Amino acid sequence: MDYEVYVGSVGASAVALVAAATSQARVAVFDARVNYGDLDLSQEVDASALLARLDRAAGDVCSRIKAPVREAIERAIDEINHPMLRAVSAARELA
Q1: Which of 5, 28, 31, 41 is a Cys-bridge partner for 15, taking CB atoms 3.0 to 4.6 Å apart?
Q2: pTM for the whole structure
């Protein structure tokens, strides 16, 4: 199976609000695809590998618009919704 999740953020600052004379706003959406079909998320090592992939993708995307990386990672973890991934993430937060 081929699984993927998008890690991203909506930027209301970097290219975002163009509301000058027209009173219309444009919002830039930045995202990155993270594939994890090669991982068995029931294994701690693979859940850790996915978390590392999410960290890299969120760091790349969020650095462009100075968005909070942790929030992007949390949204991706919520979307994937796997207990081992949540456990690995929680353990890392405690360390």
Answers
A1: 28
A2: 0.75
* pLDDT tens for each residue of 12-43: 333 333 333 344 455 556 788 898 999 999 99
Pick the closest to residue 10 from 34, 24, 26, 27 (CA basis): 27
How far are the Cα atoms of 39, 41, 81, 84 from residue 87, in angstroms, in the given order? 16, 11, 11, 5
DSSP 59-80: HHHHHHHT--HHHHHHHHHHHH
d(CA 72, CA 64): 13
Which one has a higher pLDDT value, 17 or 3? 3
Q: d(Cα 58, Cα 51) in Å, to the nearest integer?
A: 10
Q: Which helix (H) or strand (E) holds 11?
A: strand 4-11
